[in-house]
Design goal:
single chain; 29% helix; 4 helices; 184 residues; globular; two-stranded antiparallel sheet; alpha+beta; 7-stranded antiparallel beta sheet
């Protein structure tokens, strides 16, 4: 009975809190601190974490096996943005608007459309958008949600598929959706 109770408590604690990688290190000779926060992603066959670029960009960088974040036709990444570091952002809606504006500033000819939402294994609802270039640029899909970790820290979550071509974008979509829907 004791073990059943422990199993139930542990099961619920996994569902109720985010799986966020949190790490703080001294990142250079000046003694500055670097903060690394990103969602822990499930292992998906045929894909691997690119650790070097995960730390370089402070996100969970995934690339097909045999490739890295710089040379893959498609990459997938996930970010956890600590809400206290975004004091002017008051809601997920505002966060999404800011992100869309950032994309448009980089490529004003993008077509951005809200598409079918996804739900993670833990029940998080992700609002999804396609970012399609009219002429040049990457084909991207971004999914946004909010999460709270076991310590009560709150984050905006962003999962992104970024592809150099439409063909790579379409062929990576099922994998991307697995990363989102299997996130706990």
């Amino acid at each position: 009975m004791k073990y059943l109770f422990i199993f139930i408590v542990l099961s619920f604690s996994c569902v109720l809190s985010a799986e966020i990688h949190r790490e703080t290190t001294v990142c250079n000779e000046s003694g500055e601190m670097c903060f690394y926060w990103w969602p822990k992603l499930p292992r998906i066959e045929g894909w691997q974490q690119d650790n070097r670029n995960s730390y370089r960009y402070s996100l969970n960088a995934q690339a097909p096996v045999g490739f890295n974040f710089g040379n893959a036709e498609s990459v997938i990444y996930a970010k956890a943005i600590y809400k206290l570091r975004e004091p002017d952002t008051k809601s997920l809606e505002q966060f999404i608007t800011n992100d869309k504006n950032r994309f448009l500033k980089t490529n004003p000819e993008l077509s951005i459309k809200e598409i079918l939402a996804l739900t993670s294994k833990s029940g998080l609802k992700f609002r999804c958008y396609s970012f399609i270039p009219k002429i040049n640029g990457n084909w991207e899909r971004a999914s946004y949600s909010e999460e709270k970790d076991a310590d009560g820290n709150e984050y905006y979550l962003v999962f992104v598929l970024s592809s150099r071509t439409e063909k790579a974008y379409k062929s990576s979509m099922v994998t991307y959706e697995k990363f989102v829907t299997e996130y706990e």
